[in-house]
Amino acid sequence: MTTKSKNIKKDVGVGRVYISASFNNTLVTVTDTAGDTLAWGSSGAVGFKGTRRATPYAATTAVEKVIDKAKNDYGVNEVEIYVKGPGAGRDAALRAVRAAGVKISLIADVTPVPHNGPRPKKKRRV
To answer: Angle at CA 21, nearest 5°, toward 35 and 106?
Structure first.
């Protein structure tokens, strides 16, 4: 019986960084070009709790940790960045990626915007 190792380290080179910045947390995922996750993390996973997860500093710390893991384990040296959400960690996360020393080939905002959405609640009468 042969066992197949799941954790085969591969040299990727070009990756994608998905940053989801909500009002409560910042999630960071590094994938290869096919979309397979290489490394991920969040402000909460780094150790921040409560409202401090939503701060730009927490987002910076999370991005540094994830990018460092992707660089060391998978050889990621060039990234495309996709930012989603309105949170405070958006700009700080971008600055952290630039400071991490990887080449940025693309920055895209993929925040979902409704094309008029559902009907609004009825007006409040006081």
So the answer is: 50
CATH number at residue 63: 3.30.420.80
Range of the domain at 66: 22-109
pLDDT in tens, the chain (126 residues): 666 656 666 777 899 999 999 999 999 999 999 989 999 999 999 999 999 999 999 999 999 999 999 998 898 899 999 999 998 889 999 999 999 989 999 999 999 999 999 998 999 998
Q: Is residue 90 part of a domain?
A: yes
Contacts of 65 (CB under 8 A, 6+ apart): 41, 46
pTM: 0.84
Spatial strand order in the sheet of 103-109: 37-42, 26-32, 14-21, 78-84, 103-109
Alpha helices in the chain (DSSP H): 43-46, 56-74, 89-99
Q: Number of folded domains in the chain? A: 1
